[in-house]
Structures are given as structure tokens and as C-alpha cells.
């Protein structure tokens, strides 16, 4: 007898995805060639062999270095289209995508080049891939508060293309409170607010993201479990946490996927979603992350459906569109 066909992947929303973290070795080498840039790796395999990280900073060093191949509007559009094709194959119907403008402007790439390239691909995404999208502009928290403010002001002509601002890069020593002013400006301009907090940093940073930045979602937030009062707050307000299981293993936030607190977070009543973070570096896209936790944590189909449903509940989709997924 023929085996039953594999079911199509669950429809889901991806809410924690750095577009620069979708740069696969194959595209990195192609763009290096196109732009006449010499990479410090002879082959794709040699580059891939460097994807063994001791912590967040160790990953960030490689992540920022490889971005050197991204120079033109076409580069950003090609990167985005490559991501959308992979995402669609894994059941993604809606993607809220981070980008790091300061990582590009610091290399002399204009913010308009970045945003024009990304939005050229995103504007066609619904038609081409059946994926609706939102764009989230992140500030690098290991850069100064002034640099974040300058970045926000330089993005003013493009604010209608942005759904939200976010905060990423090296967390410890760079608390959310450092960015109070730029978040106030973003909210004033009508943008939603999210921030990475509680990945490597303490629960106090999650409190600051909530109370000082006024975030609508917390990215990662896994260390919130260390603070009972914080969990109570996140549950009471149903603040979404965009958890990234494979990332947490690769960056040694958790030792093994079998030890990941995802189930404990769900059991605590937290609004948890499963996401891929930097899939080209961490071993998988959204569907791969769902598959990995299904196996490692022995999640049943009902729990997987809760996770998929949470991803739409936690999204910035318009209410009517969101309701159609629930
Ligand atoms: N930038 C890209 N991926 C990140 C992560 N997991 N944490 C903080 N900053 C990031
Ligand atoms: Zn992230």
C-alpha cells in the first residue's frame, strides 16, 4: 500500500524574522560575485562550517560581516523574494519582517535603497506568494540612542511603509530604557512597537520594554519565566511573546531543544508564538521550527493548532483579516 500523503503545512504567521538572517550561503556568494566583493570563505561549505555559535554576540559578528554583500536595491529585493518563496513552502501566509537599517547605512548604503528594495518584493508578495506582509524597522541597541533617533528621522519619508519599530542586537548592557525617546516618537507617528527582551537579558528588561517602551509584543521573552510577577503581567495583558526555538538552541539560550520552556510557557497561559529569527543561520524556517518542537517536546496536533492560531492572534493584521484565520 502507498503511504498516506504528507499533509500540507499548517497555515501560520511568521512574526520574528530578520530579513538579513535569511541570507543563505548560496545567495551570499552570488551577491558577492555580482558586487565584486571578496568573502573570507572559499566555499559555501566553508561558510556554513562557521555556523557554530557560542552566544548571541558570536552570531552577530558573522551576521553583520556577511551583510557586506547587500549593496543595491536589487540585492534587497532578491533577498526578500528568496525568503518569501521558502516561507510559502512552509505554510507561512503572513510575515512581519524585521530589518536593521543601521547595519546598512553604516556601510554607506542609503536607507532608501534598503527600504525600496524590501518593499518592491513585499508589494508583490500577496500576488506572487499568497503572503501578506508588514515591515518592522529595528534599532541596533548596541548603537547609541542618538543614532536610533537619527535613523528614525531619516526614515520619516518612508513611515507609511512601516508597521512598527523594533529593537535588536546585543542585549545585555543595552536595556530598553535607553530607547525611551525614539519609541515615544514612533508611537506618536502611529507605529506599533516591539522589542527583543529576555533573550539573553534579564526579566527586568522585559518589564522595561512593557512599562517604558510600551511594546505591543515582546520578541523572545523566554527569560520572563524567571519572574513570577512578570509572567502574571504578561498573561493578564495577553502580551504576545515571539519565541524562536531553534535560535535559542543555536545561541545557547537553552542547552537542548528537549529542555526548551515552550510548553511551560503555554501551560502558564502566555500568548506564545513559534518563529524562526535568522533561519539561514539557525537551521530552519517557520515550518522547520514547528516540526522541531513537535518532535522534541512531543506536542500534539491540538497544541500545534494553538501555536498557529496564536501567530495570527498576535499579528498586526487588520481585525477582519485576522478574524478570518481564527
Ligand atoms: N539580530 C538578529 N537576530 C537577533 C537575535 N536573535 N537577537 C538579537 N538581535 C538579533
Ligand atoms: Zn531576533
UniProtKB/TrEMBL annotation:
Tell me which UniProt keywords the record has, alphabetically: Hydrolase, Metal-binding, Nucleotide metabolism, Zinc
Domain Adenosine deaminase intervals: 11-326
Q: Which family does the similarity line name?
A: Belongs to the metallo-dependent hydrolases superfamily. Adenosine and AMP deaminases family. Adenine deaminase type 2 subfamily.
Please give the name of this protein.
Adenine deaminase
**Reaction(s) the record says it catalyses:** adenine + H2O + H(+) = hypoxanthine + NH4(+)
- The residues that hold Zn(2+) are 16, 18, 196, 277
Lineage from the top down?
Bacteria, Bacillati, Actinomycetota, Actinomycetes, Kitasatosporales
Single GO term (MF): hydrolase activity
| Necessary cofactors | Zn(2+)
Q: What EC number(s) does its UniProt record assign?
A: 3.5.4.2
Q: Which organism is it from?
A: Streptomyces milbemycinicus
Give the cofactor note: Binds 1 zinc ion per subunit.
Amino acid at each position: 500500500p502507498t503511504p498516506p500523503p504528507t499533509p500540507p503545512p499548517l497555515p501560520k504567521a511568521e512574526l520574528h524574522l530578520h530579513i538579513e538572517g535569511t541570507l543563505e550561503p548560496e545567495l551570499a556568494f552570488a551577491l558577492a560575485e555580482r558586487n565584486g566583493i571578496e568573502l573570507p570563505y572559499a566555499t559555501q561549505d566553508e561558510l556554513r562550517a562557521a555556523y557554530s555559535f557560542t552566544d548571541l554576540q558570536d552570531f552577530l559578528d558573522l551576521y553583520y560581516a556577511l551583510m557586506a554583500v547587500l549593496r543595491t536595491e536589487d540585492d534587497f529585493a532578491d533577498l526578500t523574494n528568496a525568503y518569501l518563496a521558502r516561507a510559502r513552502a512552509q505554510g507561512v501566509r503572513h510575515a512581519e519582517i524585521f530589518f536593521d537599517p543601521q547595519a546598512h547605512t553604516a556601510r554607506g548604503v542609503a536607507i532608501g535603497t534598503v527600504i525600496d528594495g524590501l518593499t518592491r518584493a513585499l508589494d508583490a508578495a500577496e500576488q506572487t506568494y499568497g503572503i501578506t506582509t508588514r515591515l518592522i524597522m529595528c534599532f541596533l541597541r548596541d548603537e547609541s540612542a542618538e543614532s536610533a533617533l537619527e535613523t528614525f528621522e531619516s526614515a520619516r519619508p518612508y513611515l507609511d511603509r512601516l508597521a512598527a519599530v523594533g529593537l535588536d542586537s546585543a542585549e545585555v548592557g543595552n536595556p530598553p530604557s535607553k530607547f525611551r525617546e525614539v519609541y515615544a516618537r514612533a508611537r506618536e507617528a502611529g507605529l506599533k512597537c516591539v522589542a527583543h527582551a529576555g533573550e539573553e537579558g534579564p526579566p527586568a528588561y522585559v518589564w522595561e520594554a512593557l512599562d517604558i517602551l510600551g511594546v505591543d509584543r515582546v520578541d523572545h521573552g523566554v527569560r520572563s519565566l524567571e519572574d513570577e510577577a512578570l509572567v502574571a503581567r504578561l498573561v493578564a495583558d495577553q502580551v504576545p511573546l515571539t519565541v524562536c526555538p531553534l535560535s535559542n538552541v543555536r545561541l545557547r539560550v537553552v542547552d537542548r531543544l528537549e529542555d526548551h520552556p515552550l510548553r511551560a510557557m503555554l501551560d502558564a497561559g502566555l500568548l506564545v508564538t513559534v518563529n524562526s529569527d535568522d533561519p539561514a543561520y539557525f537551521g530552519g524556517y517557520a515550518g522547520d521550527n514547528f516540526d522541531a518542537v513537535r518532535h522534541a517536546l512531543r506536542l500534539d496536533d491540538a497544541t500545534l493548532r494553538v501555536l498557529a492560531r496564536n501567530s495570527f492572534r498576535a499579528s498586526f493584521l487588520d481585525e477582519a483579516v485576522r478574524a478570518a484565520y481564527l
